[in-house]
Amino acid sequence: MVDGNSAKKQWISASELKISNWPWHDHSKYPTPEASVKCIYSDKGIYMLFKVKERFIQAKFAEYQEAVWQDSCVEFFAAPDSSGYFNFEISCIGTLLLHWNQHGKEHTPVPPAYIKNIKIISSLGNKAIEYATICPVDGYSVECFFPFSVFTKYLLMELPKSGTSWRANFFKCGDKTPEPSWGSWFPVNKPEPSFHHPEYFGEIRFE
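User: That's the sequence. What structure does it adopt?
Assistant: Structure tokens below.
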């Protein structure tokens, strides 16, 4: 299903969540990016479609677990239960960083062997964008599939079904881009940009 086609019928009918909270954005200097995400699921995993419009794009990092938050980046933080959360961070060219964060312990990088069934396709392709480039007029999209098998490597959990809810948040960032941006779906009440706060996750419900 993950083929990079953001116009297919599954996405057209899916509900859209707006990344609309930008408390750390310098609105006096830079226009506010537009960012949203749609989510659907199957018995295999979660599918997501991020759409972003911003003035410039940059993606210096092209290898798994590199510092993609410094590039034009979207993120999905998910806590299926109360023991911890995962942070999926994806650059505009589809480069992934993924950690498991157990409460009270160090962040644990998820090993490459665990992510072989993850699929990510960006409308921008997957080659590094070393220098800031004008964003396409229509923006860009990043389509993802995150299998439940990644979650069950760390959690004893039942697979989601209709009525199941998780705590989660969605973000847009770009710490080292020409126009730094930090936005979230659910508000994060911190004085400085910081996403690793599960107390500020919202609720997503599987239907």
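The helical segments are 9-12, 148-152.
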